[in-house]
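[audit] Reproducing an earlier prediction to check determinism. Same input, same settings, fresh worker. If the tokens differ from the archived copy the diff job will pick it up downstream; this log only records the rerun itself.
[audit] input (201 residues):
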Amino acid sequence: MARYTGPKTRIARKFGEAIFGPDKVLSKKNYPPGQHGNSRKRKTSEYGIQLREKQKAKYTYGVLEKQFRNLFEKASRSKGITGEVLLQLLECRLDNIVYRLGIAPTRAAARQLVSHRHITVDGKVVNIPSYAVKPSQVIGVREKSKSLEVISDALSGFNHSKYPWIEWDSASLNGKFLHIPERSDIPENIKEQLIVELYSK
């Protein structure tokens, strides 16, 4: 399956929440898309609920199935609670950190900035969105890219104190990844235990 590039609101309506950020259409049409979206009241199976949670996590972080499964297998081999470790691995992706730092308005935009070589890690350009950022590494905007309108617009008024595991230096347009976030600090509404149950079958 290729990366989804269709209407974001359609996916948000499918899950009944704004997984891609504020959504005006979703607030008016908070029911599934399609001809019978507003009237369909089908009971979802246990498997369906688990699958839905996995799909929600994949769409939220912009990860393909194979990448997601690889991350899950890595999480299951690691110490700690598998579901929490999975979310932590997703949070450590470079495109997600760029989004959390406020350099880009969405994860999709962050992914594009990374792919187009606008982002540096410890002073070196990294163009791999899935790059796993390690604690104490510094993520910054490439010197030539600091005047980009999309970056300045995203940073204006952004609250950098929202996430305690990263810190931001507005003078140098650099952010530091302080430590791997605790589950309680990750704001995403994902029931990771359902994903663990799905893959454990």
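[audit] rerun output stored. Observation attached for the diff report: The chain has nine helices and five strands.
[audit] end
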